[in-house]
Structure formats: C-alpha cells, structure tokens
Amino acid sequence: MQQPNFDRDLARASIDTIRLLAADMVEKAQSGHPGTPMEAAPIAYLLYTRHLRHNPANPNWPGRDRFVLSCGHASALLYSMLHLTGYDLSLDDLKNFRQLGSPTAGHPEFGHAPGIETTTGPLGQGISVAAGMAMGARFLKQRVSRELFDYQIYALCSDGDLMEGVAAEAASLAGHLRLGNLICLYLDNKITIEGDTDLAFTEDVGTRFLSYGWQVLRVEGENVAEIDRAIARAKHSPRPSLIIARSHIGFGAPTKQDSHEAHGAPLGSVELQATKRTFGRDPEQSFVVPAEVAAQDGGMERRIALIA
Ligand SMILES: Cc1ncc(C[n+]2csc(CCOP(=O)(O)OP(=O)(O)O)c2C)c(N)n1
Ligand SMILES: [Mg+2]
C-alpha cells in the first residue's frame, strides 16, 4: 500500500489524544456524546492538520474553508480539535464543557467560540446548510473574487443526518448544480440513538448519492492514508463528494464500541479507564496532551503562512 507523506506515529498519537480529550470532557460534565468524537478523530485530525485552509489566529478570515458539524452532538470532537490546532480555547475551557457561561456549549452556535461555523442539533440541517454555503461560495467566487472566495465546505454527518428528508433535497440540488466545493464525510457506523441501523435504515446511501450526481468514495474509518487520499481527491472533483467512512462509534472502548451506549452518555469511569489502557495511556490521568502532540507542525503552519 502507498505510504502517506506524513508521520504515522504522530498522527496516531494525536488522534488518540483527540478521542480521549473528548471522552474526558463528557465524563467530567457527566453529559454529552463521547462515541462519535472517538470515532471521527482520524477524519478531524486529517482535515484540520492537512486539508482545511484556516488560520486559528484569525478564525474569521473570509477565505477560510468552512467545517460544518452536521452531527452536532459530536461537539466535543470540535473543541478538542480547535484546542490542539491553536484556536483560543484552553484546556480549562475543555474541562468546562457544557457548563453555564463557558465557551464550550453542548451544541454551539456560530460566534460562541472561535472556529465554530455551523453545528446542528436537528439532524439533516447541517448537510443542508453546507449545500447552501457551497452555493454562496460559488456565487462569491464568480462575482467578487476568484482568489479570496476559492474555498471548500466540509460537512461531517451521521446516519441520522442522511435519514432526514431535508438532506435529500439539499443533496439533490448540490448534485444538480455540480457543487464541487462541497465535501461531506459520512460516519457510516451502523448505529443510531436506539440501536443498530438495521432497525430502520438499510438503504444504499452511496447509490442514492451517485444518482444525485455526486462523487462517492469509500474509506475505512481508521485508515489514515485512505482517508487522506479520499479528501485530496474530493478537493479536485467538479462534483460534490460523499466520503463514506465505515467507522466505529466509541472506537477503543472495550465494551461500548459499536454500541448505541457510546452515543449519548458518559462512558463511565471503569470503561474510560479501560479505554485509556487500550491506547497505552495512564488510566488515572485525564485531559492529557503529550508533548509531541502539542508541539507538532502538521503542515498547518505552512498553509497559514500562505494565507496570512
Ligand atoms: C431531526 C432530529 N430528529 C431527532 C434527533 C434526536 N437525535 C439525536 S442524535 C440521533 C441519532 C443518532 O444517530 P446517528 O445520527 O447515526 O449518530 P451517531 O450516534 O452514529 O453518532 C437522534 C435521533 C435530532 N437531533 N434531530
Ligand atoms: Mg450512526
């Protein structure tokens, strides 16, 4: 298999840090959703360090790529990622997840914390908003500035997002308009809030999106090289792209991985400690960011230099 042109060990250490920070946040708050952040950490890491054109020191730069968290219940993922990539969100802010007055709300709105674009509570809305944002970006690019508004819209979505009718309407329009600046990453984990998707959702999502006129790519949710290549390919597609990641909710949790129990409740201290052992971390410590993870330059600094 082709080797990725990045440090695999550092990527793995960073991804595990993201998952455990998110699980610690939910555990400390005693509310929230640990499983989806643990599952989506590889995608978030690759996006934020290798693909997203953004500037943590100037989160509102108009030419930035936009990241829409359609499965907004995974907000702990976003906060971990923003903290690690240098946005103005401290480890203490992460420790205050879901507390009154903190910048780390459960379902954050635009402007509430740096780096938050759209995150949605109602499933289906995020991917639909993302299609609208891609239309807006194209308009600005054609009418105002080809250089400044040459940006992509990334949306992370889940089964529930794709069950919603509104998402189908928006995706159909995006395909019709050939919005190549729209990239949706779908966490195909076969689990929803009540249990397996077998209960209510067995359609072939990929074929549906192909019929809308999208490019459809498939990756394995823990395969960083595969995810990286798929995102790189999607960026150059003239059509919108759906990257279907076969991923595992609660990845690394010994008894809750691949279970709806990892969706909307803290893992519990015993399970969380066992998860930390799985990743070779000290089970007694929380909110740990290893020095090599904190100090890394994942290529992000270079992109910032280009756009500052
Ligand atoms: C329109 C809408 N209906 C219902 C809900 C309640 N709800 C929150 S998450 C969820 C489903 C979770 O399953 P999935 O989208 O697959 O996310 P995962 O657990 O895999 O992260 C539901 C039904 C909602 N947020 N929005
Ligand atoms: Mg799911």
What does the largest sheet look like? Answer: 6 strands, parallel
Count of helical regions: 12
How widely separated are the two ends? Answer: 36 Å
Shape: globular
Strand order of the largest sheet: 2-1-3-4-6-5
Listed once per kind, the bound small molecules are:
thiamine diphosphate, magnesium ion
Q: Are there runs of 5+ residues with pLDDT below 50, and where?
A: 298-302
- Percent strand equals 5-15%
Helix content: 40-55%
Give the topology string: H per helix, E per strand: HHEHHEHEHHEHEHEHHH
**Structural class per helix/strand content?**
alpha/beta
Give Rg in angstroms: 18 Å
Number of strands: 6
Residue-averaged pLDDT: 94
Task: Show the helix and strand layout.
Layout: H1 8-29, H2 35-51, E1 66-69, H3 75-84, H4 91-95, E2 118-119, H5 125-143, E3 153-158, H6 159-163, H7 165-176, E4 182-188, H8 205-212, E5 215-220, H9 224-235, E6 241-246, H10 269-278, H11 291-294, H12 300-307
Parallel strand pairs: 1-2, 1-3, 3-4, 4-6, 5-6
Helix pairs in contact: 1-2, 1-3, 1-10, 2-3, 2-9, 5-7
Bound molecules: thiamine diphosphate and magnesium ion.
Task: Walk me through what this model shows.
The protein has 308 residues and is of the alpha/beta class. Helices cover 43% and strands 10% of the residues. It is built from twelve helices and six strands. A six-stranded parallel beta sheet has the order 2-1-3-4-6-5, sandwiched between helices. Strand 5, helix 9 and strand 6 form a beta-alpha-beta unit. Helix 1 runs antiparallel to helix 10. The chain is globular, with a radius of gyration of 18 Å. The two termini are 36 Å apart. About 2% of the residues have low confidence. The chain binds thiamine diphosphate and magnesium ion. Thiamine diphosphate (TPP) binds next to helix 6.
